[in-house]
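Recap from last week: sequence in, structure out.
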Amino acid sequence: MINVYMSELDFEYELNALIKTVCPGSEIKFHSEFLEPFIGEKADLNLFIKLNPSSIDLSLSAAGNLVDAHSDVSFLSVSSLGESDKAEICEESCVQASDNDIHDRDSDKESVLWHKNPKDETGGRKKNPYRLEYKNVLKRMVMKALTELPDSFRPDGMLFRKPVWGTMTGVRPSKIALNLLEGKFSFDELDLDDESLRSSVKERVVSELKSEYLCSDDRARLSTDIAFREKEILNKLGNDRVEDSFSLYAGIPFCPTTCLYCSFTSYPLKAYSQYIDAYLDAIEFEMEKKAKEFGCNPLTIYVGGGTPTSLNHKQLDRFLGMIDKNFNVAGAIEYTVEAGRPDTLDLEKLQILKEHKVDRVSINPQSMQLKTLEKIGRFHTPEDIVKCFEMARKAGIQNINADLIAGLPGEDVLDFSDTVDKVLSLNPESVTVHSLVIKRASRMREVLDRELQINEESRENDIKRLKRADLLDEMIKFSNNSIVKFGLKPYYMYRQKNANVHYQSSGQENIGYSKEGFECLYNILMMEEKQSIVSVGAGASTKLYDKETKTVSRVENVKSLKDYIDRNRR
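Predicted structure tokens:
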């Protein structure tokens, strides 16, 4: 048990994610009161955090020992902020208030205190740059306190590891590097033909990520390389063109079966086939509404699932025809359809895709090991993958992505390396490597627990899980080396959210690699949140981009198939 006592419960979501990564398997409890050390509940480890306008005080008690830390953050208000921000933040920092005023969330909501996002002239909230830097200082203090705790101070049975992503707990680490390039390092003003300058800026971004977020050198370089590539692609498209348009996502939530690891909105075809036509009616109705609201000229189109190609030939043709009818498909610069399950594909379906101007498909082996495919509920063979690639080429599709999953049950590094080699031999234009994520209540967890012979929670079991996490790290490193050597370069990345760190590395990143000119533009636009993503379908999420504030708000569709159909009747 780790108790965290705070003078005010703020930043607890990020702190919880960080502490779980550093101390996997530990239960964490937050308390909205700052107590003197040794007064709190009995626990393996206690963190005492006092948030002040110009400083942070941290004490850590463990195994009868006390460690104190203090950070002066007053310099933040006069360092990397703009002049107008300095005046505003300094004024707020000088607000005189009692402890209750500062640390009580129920105090006067009209007053703008040092740690809050101040109100703008309309009464809404605007970002407080001081708050972000203050949070980063706090997270660095917590991570250093835990990772640098002497072995003699560490409670018996508690596991510690240094996360390779440092204090980064979000799903978009490359976005941090991209923000640095666009802001602090003025990418658009750089002479990128000057290789020396280009290299110098990259090193400065890497250094910033390592010092500000304490991430490892290899992750800092990966994030920076991807950010540079994304920025070059976005610049070629043109910022105004990107920001003033939108991309379309359409979801088909049906699959032949539900894979063991799947956490997406999907329904087994056999049990829900009677709903398909009604679902197509509903999604057509939503398309018509969205076309009227947002226009009919998407920059990119992405059809996902589920497995869209689980529709039969007539249904697939009808569905793609709906998109043709409501949106200017010919004007889109990219049109992707996930054709992930080989057992849903034939030449006729691929020809239907091509006839509707689809120019990119994703054929997803996940693994080229037959034993693994059978274990995870995939009813195809490695040979079927080869046939699907051949059929796609025959249908005239010249942009194929292949998804792989590292860390599937029963696989070792040799198995995964064999999968990577076999997929690369098919000469895909892009490959996406996913780290297997185990949700706490998933069926996959049960399978892996049996594989590791885990029957109950214990330190021995946690060690087994962490060894398996190290195996996953080896797989990711191998795939990166092999894929880059083959000629594909990383172009986008995201990390998993709410993953069970017992099983996973502290990275949990998914990386997309591609040949030059074959990057999935939709992936970049969606992940870096540079434009609105207009989504239709059950469980789909529309992301509305505000060009003025550079922020995104989300509108979620209901996940229930029946509810979605009922809500989109004519």
